[in-house]
Write a structure and sequence with these properties.
The structure is a single chain. The chain has about 500 residues and is of the alpha/beta class. The protein folds into two domains: about 5-35 and about 320-495, no CATH class; about 55-270, Spore Coat Polysaccharide Biosynthesis Protein SpsA, Chain A (Alpha-Beta Complex), CATH 3.90.550. The chain is built from 16 helices and seven strands. It has helices at about 5-40, 70-80, 100-115, 130-140, 160-165, 190-210, 225-230, 240-250, 275-300, 305-315, 320-340, 350-375, 375-395, 400-410, 445-465, 470-495; strands at about 60-65, 90-95, 115-120, 145-150, 170-180, 220-225, 255-265. The chain has a seven-stranded mixed sheet, sandwiched between helices. The radius of gyration is 23 Å and the shape is globular.
């Protein structure tokens, strides 16, 4: 056996093992989550005495950049907040370079006339991107608590009242709420995203928080104690996920976070493939950058338990799973050839069983999420059966795009913060054909994704020819996933 054949087997095996342990960590979170719900009782209820003395001063920060289509509903909704006006400061942190600036100025003026303490803070250099805007606002903010919303969020009127009562303990530094979806059923992409995000905001965040492990601020729909932000070193712009970075720095300083599954904040899901790819690129590259920046600090910390360290490792490295999926897919073809020649190494290929077991573990994980989000369990089960294999296939199809982002993150290659285009698809029948922020260019990577779809179709044929069907389900999912990603990348660019 040649060096390259050995190398293929080793790399493939390592990738499979990582996927397996990643799936194990997800199941562990699921068990934490279920255990918490079984033991939940009245002693877990919040302390309503938070507002007994007086309402605290709260600053709402709205970081925006060229958000023409969503600023009006956002500001109108913020103006309906059920909170005393004299205890509320609103900062519109506006880095816009288009007509969004004028729209905001007009809406801010109207809210000022209505008695709101609202400030329109406009930067022309966009230094530090979102982190820079938040930092600039924090330097002059009046509130002891800071609520942050992205432009496509529509928080409920009771959001502040529902969130602030969880700050009764001085060590609580952040309260994060659950994301809900304004356009969940808009199209195929939004349904798949909702399926995945529901799992994160149900089992992952809930499971980590239930066991006392590190969770993360999700960039929006959360409330910070200003003291916590400052104590952790403030917002830093050296990663694309400033929210994850600050979360870890704060928790390493001893601050505790609270996740509220029962408080939801509706938001818009990207309905176009290019918008989804933009978001996925930022999330996955940023996660890799945060791993480089913070993983060593977590491991070396004497104040963090070993169990929390293990969960944190998989948390910070969860984007690496896309690299492993891509590697196992690309190497599975050559492995079938190696297997057909070297029969004595047949046992090594039983490692594929780890992937099958990983699939089963993830199925339990996502079923738990679906079951908790559907009162009708029969309807929920049908939803799960119809969504899970397709969801997994689509995200396998994103593995090339996301793996490249991860490699850039680990390599330290810097790139600007690119906002996710917003469409104001509050209703499922909304349109985005004429949206000015959508890229109409077909990225050359799309052609590689199309090629990979054909590659895995060929792998299916080779498997049939060799009489080796063990990897056929894997190849079918990859062929479908890459095909779907390539298809929508082209179709949505031409709309």
């Amino acid at each position: 056996m040649s060096f390259w054949e050995y190398a293929i087997i080793v790399v493939y095996s390592m990738a499979i093992v990582f996927i397996f342990f990643f799936a194990v960590s997800e199941v562990a979170l699921m068990l934490n989550y279920l255990s918490y719900h079984r033991t939940y009782n009245k002693k877990n209820e919040i302390d309503s005495r938070f507002f007994e003395k007086e309402y605290p001063l709260v600053t709402i920060q709205l970081p925006v950049y060229n958000e023409l289509y969503v600023m009006k509903p956002l500001l109108e909704n913020i103006g309906k907040m059920d909170y005393p006006k004299d205890k509320l400061e609103i900062q519109v942190l506006d880095d816009s370079t288009d007509e969004t600036f004028e729209l905001i100025a007009n809406k801010v003026g109207a809210l000022q006339q209505d008695g709101f303490n609202i400030k329109h803070i406009h930067r022309v250099n966009r230094q530090g991107y979102k982190a820079g805007a938040l930092s600039a606002g924090l330097a002059i903010c009046e509130g002891d608590y800071v609520a942050i919303f992205d432009a496509d969020f529509i928080p409920s009127q009771s959001f502040l009242m529902d969130s602030l009562i969880h700050f009764t303990q001085n060590k609580i530094g952040l309260v994060q709420t659950k994301w809900l979806h304004l356009n969940k059923n808009y199209n195929f992409l939004t349904r798949m995203q909702a399926f995945g995000l529901d799992a994160h905001f149900t089992v992952e965040q809930g499971g980590r928080n239930a066991a006392g492990h590190f969770i993360n601020f999700n960039g929006t729909a959360g409330v910070w104690r200003k003291e916590c932000i400052n104590d952790a070193g403030g917002w830093e712009s050296d990663t694309l996920t400033e929210d994850l970075d600050l979360s870890y720095r704060a928790q390493l300083k001893g601050w505790e976070f609270k996740y509220l599954e029962g408080v939801g904040s509706p938001a818009e899901l990207p309905a176009a493939m290019n918008a989804l790819k933009t978001q996925q690129y930022r999330w996955n590259k940023g996660a890799a950058e945060c791993a480089v920046k913070n993983l060593d600090k977590v491991i070396k910390s004497k104040d963090v338990s070993n169990s929390t360290k293990v969960y944190a490792i998989f948390h910070l490295m969860n984007s690496f799973v896309f690299v492993c999926i891509l590697l196992t897919g690309l190497l599975s073809g050559p492995l079938m050839y190696i297997k057909s020649i070297y029969f004595e190494f047949g046992y090594l290929f039983q490692l594929a069983a780890f992937f099958s077991l990983s699939f089963v573990f993830l199925a339990f994980f996502y079923w738990t999420s679906t079951a908790m989000n559907y009162e009708n369990k029969t309807k929920g089960f049908l939803k799960f059966i119809g969504s899970f294999p397709i969801f997994l296939s689509v995200y396998m199809g994103l593995s090339l795009h996301n793996a490249l982002a991860v490699f850039e993150g680990y390599a330290g290659k810097k790139s600007p913060f690119v906002r996710t285009p917003k469409f104001n698809l509050i209703k499922n029948d909304g349109v985005w054909k004429n949206n000015k922020y959508i890229s109409r260019k077909i990225n050359p990577l799309t052609y590689v994704e199309l090629f990979l779809s054909l590659y895995f179709i060929a792998a299916i044929g080779i498997g049939v020819y060799l009489g080796d069907s063990g990897l056929m389900p894997f190849h079918l999912m990859l062929a479908f996933g890459f095909g779907v990603i390539a298809f929508f990348s082209v179709v949505h660019a031409k709309r």
